[in-house]
Design goal:
It comes from Pseudoalteromonas rubra. This is Fibronectin type-III domain-containing protein. By secondary structure, the protein is mainly β. It folds into seven domains: 31 residues, no CATH class; 90 residues, Immunoglobulins (Immunoglobulin-like); 84 residues, Immunoglobulins (Immunoglobulin-like), CATH 2.60.40.10; 80 residues, Immunoglobulins (Immunoglobulin-like); 82 residues, Immunoglobulins (Immunoglobulin-like); 102 residues; 147 residues, no CATH class. Helices cover 2% and strands 52% of the residues. A hairpin with a 5-residue loop joins strand 32 and strand 33.
């Protein structure tokens, strides 16, 4: 049929005929309908939401509604494409290992031939178990290794692995190494049991779980056989121990360790060339010899052990002691039975108070003489043989040296001044009848010299200090015929008078006293107070010429303390630039017939004796009066001030800084009426705290009162020794750590001074 020249209507008719066979007249007017394509749908048939995946590689089968429409199918796990196919059969591959021990979301993405994307209707989760690692395993591993420090391992591959990691565990430590293929070498292995496992990571940087661990153990070399007895010799340098090692394979050698039982001694030596192993210079004792084998990798076997006893000499028994006082020390003599097999003896003495020890070697003799200062001592003796081996120390024994308790009849005990001299002696200034009295004792209670100073007036001297030359300077005052006099005297180091000067106070002053003196910048200053009924005290600081005793300067002290009058008690050197003065402030109604103490004060003076700082207490103990007790200087140049009530129950303390600002103020209730001479009895300790020694009025018990570094009362300790008859009138800490007390001679009749030197 030739339709080439037909009109369109004729063509349509012809098509109609060809496709439909031409219908009735009614059919000629109906429209032509073309069927629509159905949307492409896909679903997973091999997995579901209840599936557990155990295989490391899993086939995922997919059903499609119209294969003719499919251009490609992709498997998505947790939204990531893991496989894509473009033709039937519609089965995708999933390396499920990389999602082991987790829940994975499965979905399918289909692309039709019009490049439209169709997703599976309902993504679902599957559980991937640890069984995905079941196929993973190392190649054959030896359960035990020895004499090596490396191991080559291989393992089964994992599909599509980019790289592998090998995990190595030993004794709580963990190491991970990386490998690009299925083998690796473990190096620098130490002794112990190892667990190893591996895992893989794919191109999506998805890492699977570790394989099941496998175990191997790197063992130490085998221990040597039972040891032979070493050869033991005694030489001049000590015991010598020689051990001959057994023959060993190449690469192995013996290490010998010597351990002193109960001590920290641990000696080692190696025999890499097969030579004998030697320890020399050993001291006596119980030892354990340990022989071990070490390989080329430094791995050490368990030791084979042998106990060895190296005998020591014995310390002497029945040691006798004798003491004879010589000069200012004690000669102590030890004697014991001789032993010809010993080279020398070693005697140690320890001062129980200072803990200072002295060791003395005695050769070619069975006696020992040596000198000791005063104190309580512990001593021991030890023998040393010709090889230098030492015995055990003897039992500790006690030796009392240089403590004393002496008395001076008819010497006042209540008003004394005591100082330690540069040559470790003790000088005491007191009264004997109407005169002053001086005595110097050595460190053992021996009287080196004793002097009575007979002058007009009643016992004028009451302050005492020593010059660098060993000479002594004392000051004081007396009242006679309505006039008061200041007195200063200088004595040689033997107590002989060099000069003695008296100076009458001016203006007809009624009474006066010198209460303190210091040596400051090589100059001597004394503190003088002169008073009368109307004006209170006039305070001056006087420099005395140490060559003549004459007054060089007399500088008035005027403090800025408002309406109060000043009763100055103490001078104290702070440093080469500063001097402190301290005492008590009085009310305006002061008279000799009343006691009107208000509170304590402190002032600081410069080198010209000008006032730079001043401070007064706050009468913290009201309603009781607060009078000056002592002032001390700590290592930080803080001033420590003690004020005490008349009742002696409360002690008011103040800690002042360099500018006299109050760092601490305390009302300290001592719960006892302590008889304390605070200026002498209060002593600074190394930690900045203060200890004061005194007697309880009521119980006649000796106490040490302890204050912390802020002068807060901490406690008071009672002591049974020494037994005093009264409160100590003076307490001195001597240079060797002993304590010197002055006390009343018992019974209470007449006058007598008791001096006790003891370790306290």
């Amino acid at each position: 049929m030739n339709l080439k020249n037909l009109p369109l209507s004729s063509v349509g008719f012809a098509v109609c005929l060809a496709l439909t066979g031409c219908g009735s007249d009614s059919d000629k007017s109906a429209p032509v309908v073309t069927p629509e394509k159905q949307p492409l749908s896909v679903s997973v048939t091999s997995l579901s939401a209840t599936s557990e995946v155990d295989a490391s590689s899993t086939e995922v089968k997919v059903s499609v509604s119209d294969e003719s429409q499919v251009k490609s199918l992709s498997l998505l796990v947790n939204g990531e494409k893991v496989d894509t196919i473009e033709s039937a059969p519609w089965s995708l591959q999933w390396d499920a290992y990389y999602w082991g021990n987790s829940s994975a979301t499965i979905s399918i993405e289909a692309v039709d031939k019009d490049n439209k994307v169709h997703n599976s209707a309902a993504p679902f989760n599957v559980e991937v178990t640890n069984a995905v690692t079941d196929a993973m395993a190392f190649g054959e591993l030896n359960e035990t290794l020895r004499n090596t420090d490396s191991l080559k391992v291989s393992f089964s591959p994992v599909n599509n692995a980019e790289f592998y990691e090998i995990q190595i565990k030993r004794d709580g430590t963990e190491q991970i190494i990386k490998s690009d293929d299925t083998s690796a070498e473990l190096t620098e292995l130490l002794l112990g049991e190892y667990n190893i496992s591996y895992r893989a990571t794919n191109s999506l940087e998805q890492t699977g779980p570790w394989s099941q661990p496998e175990t191997f153990t790197l063992l130490a070399p085998e221990a040597p056989a039972a040891m032979e007895e070493p050869k033991i010799e005694l030489t001049e340098t000590g015991y010598k121990l020689t051990y001959t090692p057994p023959e060993l394979e190449d690469g192995l050698y013996v290490q010998l360790a010597l351990v002193e039982l109960g001590e920290q001694t641990d000696l080692t030596t190696n025999s890499k060339d097969g030579q004998a192993l030697v320890f020399e210079g050993l001291k006596p004792g119980a030892y354990q010899v340990e022989a071990s084998i070490i390989n080329a990798y430094g791995h050490k076997s368990a030791p084979t052990m042998l106990n060895v006893e190296l005998e020591a000499p014995q310390a002497p028994e029945n040691v006798e002691t004798a003491m004879v006082m010589e000069g200012d020390q004690h000669r102590v003599t030890f004697s014991w039975e001789n032993n010809d097999n010993l080279a020398y003896y070693l005697v140690t003495t320890t001062n129980n108070t200072t803990e200072q020890s002295t060791e003395t070697i005695v050769t070619d003799s069975n006696t020992l003489d040596f000198m000791l200062p005063a104190g309580e001592y512990s001593w021991q003796i030890q023998s040393v043989d010709i090889a230098g081996n030492e015995s055990a120390w003897s039992n500790t024994k006690t030796l009392s040296v240089g403590v004393y308790d002496i008395q001076f009849e008819n010497v006042a005990w209540s008003s004394v001044n005591v100082l330690s001299t540069l040559d470790n002696g003790t000088v005491i200034l007191s009264d004997k009848g109407d005169d002053n009295w001086l005595v110097k004792l050595d460190a053992y209670g021996n009287v080196l010299w004793e002097k009575t100073i007979s002058k007009p007036g009643y016992q004028p001297l009451n302050t005492l200090l020593e010059l660098p030359s060993g000479e002594l300077v004392a000051s004081g005052s007396f009242y006679n015929a309505g006039k008061s006099y200041g007195v200063t005297a200088k004595f040689s180091e033997n107590g002989d008078e060099i000069w003695y000067t008296e100076t009458q106070n001016n203006n007809g002053d009624r009474s006066g006293s010198i209460t303190s003196a210091v040596l400051w910048n090589d100059k001597y200053y004394r503190l003088q107070s002169v008073g009368n009924y109307n004006t209170g005290y006039e305070i001056t600081i006087q420099q005395i010429d140490l060559n003549t005793g004459e007054i060089v300067t007399s500088t008035p002290f005027v403090g800025d303390f408002g309406p109060y009058r000043i009763s100055a008690s103490e001078l104290m050197v702070i440093d080469s630039e500063q001097l402190a003065i301290a005492g008590t402030l009085l009310t305006e109604t002061y008279s000799e017939l009343t006691t009107d103490h208000v509170n304590v004060f402190v002032a600081k003076l410069d080198k010209t004796l000008k006032l730079t700082h001043s401070w007064q207490g706050t009468n913290v103990a009201s309603p009781y009066s607060d009078y000056f007790g002592a002032i001390k200087l700590d290592e930080q140049k803080n001033l420590l001030v003690f004020g005490q009530e008349e009742s002696s129950v409360n002690v008011n303390t103040y800690k002042l800084d360099a500018n006299l600002n109050v760092l601490a103020a305390q009302i300290n209730y001592l719960n006892a009426e302590l008889d304390v001479d605070w200026e002498s009895a209060a002593h600074l300790t190394s930690d900045g705290s203060v200890v004061a020694i005194g007697m309880d009025f009521n119980s006649n018990t000796l106490y040490s009162a302890h204050f912390d570094s802020n002068l807060a009362f901490v406690r008071k300790d009672a002591f049974d020794s020494p037994a005093l008859n009264d409160g100590p009138s003076y307490v001195l800490k001597a240079k060797d750590g002993t304590t010197i007390f002055t006390d009343r001679v018992a019974p209470y009749s007449g006058s007598g001074l008791r001096v006790i030197r003891t370790v306290f």
